[in-house]
Amino acid sequence: MTDKSQIPSGSDDVSDLLGAYVLDAVDDFERRRVERAADADPDVAAEIARLLLVADALADAVAVDPPTGLWDSIRLGIDNVDRGDVSAAQTKGLSNAPGSVGSRSNRSFFLVAAAVVAVVVISGSALIGLSRTTPPTDSIATMTAMANDAVTRQGTRTGVLSDPAASMEIRVVVDVEGHGFVMTDPLPALPSGETYQLWSAANGTMVSLGMLGSDPEMSLVSIDASVTELALTREPAQGSVAPTSSPMATGLLA
Amino acid sequence: MSARRSSTQSQNFGSISSDRDLVDGLRTRAESALAEIYKRHGGAVFGLSRRVLNDDGLAEDVTQEIFLRLWNEPQRFDAERGTLRSYLNRQSHSRSIERVRSEEAHRRREDRSVESDKPESGAIESEVLASIESNRIRTALDQLGQKERRAIVLAYYGGHSYREVASRLRLPEGTVKSQLRTGLQHLSVLLNDGQPEEDQ
Questions:
Q1: The domain that contains B18 carries what CATH number?
Q2: Which of A144, A165, A190, B140 has the fewest CB atoms in 10 Å of its CB?
Q3: What does pLDDT average to over chain A?
Q4: Apex CA A115: angle with CA A110 and CA A117, to 5°?
Q5: Do B146 and B91 fall within a single domain?
Q6: Does A189 reach chain B within 8 Å, measured CB to CB?
Q7: Where are the beta strands (DSSP E) in chain A?
Q8: Any A CB within 8 A of B106 CB
Q9: Looking at the complex, does the CB of residue A128 fall below 8 Å from at least one CB of chain B?
Q10: Residues of A in contact with B60 (CB under 8 A)
């Protein structure tokens, strides 16, 4: 199974996440956590494979005939990608794409442009012999680096959650895309039947931002731009719809 | 390195070629291979994206993006890990969800009333079930417990994370995680002509 030091959020069994994983209903870190578990445990991999067949059946159940003209748009895209000519893709997209309208053509242009960039990047990497490796983004060190990097960028918000006695200090960094890094290192470990849970607080309403587990060090949660007040509570291990205890720490994002 | 199509592009791939042969054809820049893949799987890719995004234009963009990516990076498909259909379905679903979340984040930045715009959970479920033409799948979903079915529909066809599903249904996150897993396990049994392992 996974190395606990590499699991940044939550202490719940990874098997609980398998259904959500198969349905794309987990966050990036949970996804990596499941994939690491699948690499290490054949039983986990076997269950994922079994559940993915169900997801395939669900996907096929909503298949429809694609719109007339969509294939022509794809052909146009590959023609221009192979020519490496983004401006031509834009011009042709505006004039020739079947059923095209202005906004759709603009979207097509960006898709083609992105595809051209992808080809150029891959080609460049091959030419200069770069190895393309995926960094271990689920490591605490990497997440800390990502948080530190986010702090230097415009639009990133930061905050500190603390208790009335100021005995704890939980730092939160939220980048412009809503990735919230919650540095919970000083928190004491909870009994196994409990979890820390993070909340947004607005006008007296608390909305869950996620369970952090019983012994978190660093967690990633999604925090959108409307959230300005945060609160942390202790909850049963399954998590709660609404807080069942008073916030042990609160703070503002700015 | 040039990405131009080679002379092998004139090689003709048709309905008798296997998916694996077609992907090999992409590696030689054979457009007829991509055309055949689109013919076989374009409807599934577009249909799933349209279901999740609820927007034909965005679904066309996603479909185009997926086939362009397959054209540019056919090596990303690993036949040892599953079928091409499955690979494309997953691409369609994950790309569509990225769009959903990106659009919602944008709308939140522009207008913080996005929550009030969300369709009611029961409405999504009814709409999805009505749109499923496969009797096999509809029958299997009908046989699931309502809680499991609703959680799966919201997560998969609605493009919601399990946390969002929990919030919408006002259930603990752990409960929703459990419903998604056991619901899929039950569907697996039902789709293999069996019965659920336990009553709902």
A1: 1.10.1740.10
A2: A165
A3: 73
A4: 95
A5: no
A6: no
A7: 157-161, 170-174, 179-183, 194-202, 205-213, 218-222, 229-236, 249-252
A8: no
A9: no
A10: 66-67, 70, 73, 104
Q: Which residue range(s) make up the domain with B180?
A: 118-191
Q: Is B41 helix (H, G, I), strand (E, B) or coil?
A: helix
Distance from CA of B179 to the nearest CA of A (A): 8
As a dihedral over the C-alpha atoms of residue A127, residue A81, residue B26, residue B79, rounded to 10 degrees, the angle is 80
Residue pLDDT, tens place only, A87-105: 433 333 322 333 333 334 3
Q: Give the domain CATH number at B134.
A: 1.10.10.10
- The pair of three-digit structure tokens given for residue A157, joined into one six-digit string: 């918000």
Q: Are residues B141 and B100 in the same domain?
A: no
Quickly state the pLDDT bin for A107 (edges 50, 70, 90): very low
Q: Rounded distance, CA A15 to CA A216, Å?
A: 19
Q: Is A87 within 8 Å of chain B by CB?
A: no
To probe the interface with A, which of B6, B37, B60, B142 has the most A CB atoms within 10 Å?
B60
Confidence class for position B85, pLDDT limits 50, 70, 90: very high
- Using pLDDT thresholds of 50, 70 and 90, give the confidence band for residue A1: very low
Please, how many CA atoms are within 13 Å of residue A126, restricted to the half-sphere of its CB? 9
Q: Is B180 on the interface with A (CB under 8 A)?
A: yes
Quick one: B131 and B95 in the same domain?
A: no
Using alpha carbons only, give the angle A218, A3, A209 rounded to the nearest 5 degrees.
30
Taking CA atoms, A68 is separated from A99, A247, B50, B133, in Å, by: 8, 56, 15, 21
* Interface list for B 8-27 with A (CB within 8 A): none
